[in-house]
Amino acid sequence: MTTSTPEVTTVSSAMQRLIDQNAAERIWTKDSSLWALDEHHSAVILNRLGWLDSVSSMVEQIDDLTHLADKVRADDYEDVVLLGMGGSSLCPDVLSRTFGPGPGFPKLHVLDSTDPDAIADIEEQLDLKHTLFVVATKSGGTTETISFFEYFWDRAKPVLGDDTGSHFIAITDPGSSLEILATERGFLRTFLNPSDIGGRYSAISFFGLVPAALLGIDLTMFLSRAATMADMSRLQPSSSKDLKTNPALALGAFIASNASSGRDKLTLVFDHTVEILGAWIEQLIAESLGKNGKGAIPISGETLGDPSVYGNDRAFVTTHLAGTEIDPKIMALEAAGHPVHTIHISNEYDIGSEFFRWEFATAVAGALLGVDPFDEPNVTESKENTKRYLQTYVDKGSMPTDDDHTTDPSDHQTLNGFLSNLKSGDYLAIQAYLETTDETNAALQKIRMALRDKYKVATTLGWGPRFLHSTGQLHKGGPASGVFLQITHEDLIDLDIPGQDFGFSELKEAQAKGDLDSLTSKNLKALSVYLSQADEADMDALVTTITEGLA
């Protein structure tokens, strides 16, 4: 049971409430009554606040992590493959794309897709004798992660023999099935993360810092930036207009007040230095705040447009890199009356401070909106549907189809008729169960921008099944303003999952069908577009159908 509080519709009113409630101090003393009143719910929240202590606890691990990284480099590892989903994979992906490997350090690949082509593409790049695998899952039993592990263990065993275990590292909670598995198979290391840190709040923990060390990132500098933000988040602002003393508190007030006033499309416009951070923030905000019909809807990856293409449901957070000019388009947004919150950064190491800023701000926003930012009540729905489809496949050799909610690019009338229902205040969520390639991403971005500019609606792009572990909670539990365009295709290859009666292609198909069922069961607007191969011709046909329909 969450707290019931009157709405705060301005940043000033939100800040005043936070001051009156002594929110900063209460968060740090882990006062769960900020978010929940009943005893059971409070106990659950108390077991999700370990992230507050993670900066100081990780400082104590710097020497050990640095020693591990030096050993990996000395042992001539060329590649590290992180196997994970959601909170276990998004932070490492941000670090890899932002920093890249340091001199002499291995390249980090992040696998969080069940698409067979995506898995095969990574496998083709590896020399297994010089590859280290990091298996990361809080629960220890995440279906996708364990499937990835079993697949690559099966591939590595004939090459490495009795030495196979020394090429694997585990990151998990104490007592999980993965901890047991790692012991049985002789993993090189097992890092046990504090169990009171939730997956999406785990960036500054072993889930983020082990990959950071393996990339050669300066952990001391990284954590010092995070520590500075953590220290500032303890401070009490002097007045409701004081937005600088506690920047994390101020960001939380900005998010919640705009969501309460109808500007719930939180649009992230970041400098290229930290642009990929938006994908991590997307999960944090969506899964934490999107519930009970409430929430802020994070919009990441949209190309910044003129003020005229945005409705009055937008609020913007932007970063300004020291030594650069402010983007004139940002200034134009402010001049047009759109709320803009600016975060100043000095270089890529400020990602350390941003991880903590956004975690704290999300907790603050949850308190102001009257939602529990630490649970995910709707995530299991799609998982259960996925299990049902997989069991049907095992029993009957095929999966049922939903003809009422499925079409193909040649059906112009159905596809464009569906999209023409977009209206002010909606957001379009493109859910692509495809391999993430530059070409595919570019095609889907064309669709996003065309629909945004035509209907003035916010757009998101999620890659399945990764988004099920992030924005999936928002889609089912947040504001009922989503319009969902699912894109699937026929896999030309399949890869067996050792120990299962289905392969990755069937797993991905079951995930797509299961999520579509979850959306339509709630009477949300959803349509699945089936492509034959998702090659260049298919993607061009999809783009043409939609853009010509708009014209």
Task: Walk me through the structure.
The protein is 46% helix and 14% strand. The model has no long low-confidence stretch (mean pLDDT 95). It is of the alpha/beta class. The chain contains 21 helices and 14 strands. α13 links the parallel β6 (265-269) and β7. A five-stranded parallel β-sheet has the order 2-1-3-4-5, sandwiched between helices. A five-stranded parallel β-sheet has the order 10-14-13-11-12, with helices on both faces. The chain has three domains: 11-34 and 234-369, Rossmann fold, CATH 3.40.50.10490; 53-217, Glucose-6-phosphate isomerase like protein, domain 1 (Rossmann fold); 379-550, 3-Layer(aba) Sandwich (Rossmann fold), CATH 3.40.50. The termini are far apart. The chain is globular, with a radius of gyration of 23 Å. α5 (62-74) crosses α10 (206-215) and α12 (247-260) crosses α15.
Summarize the structure.
The chain has 551 residues and is an alpha/beta fold. The chain is 46% helix and 14% strand. The chain contains 21 helices and 14 strands.
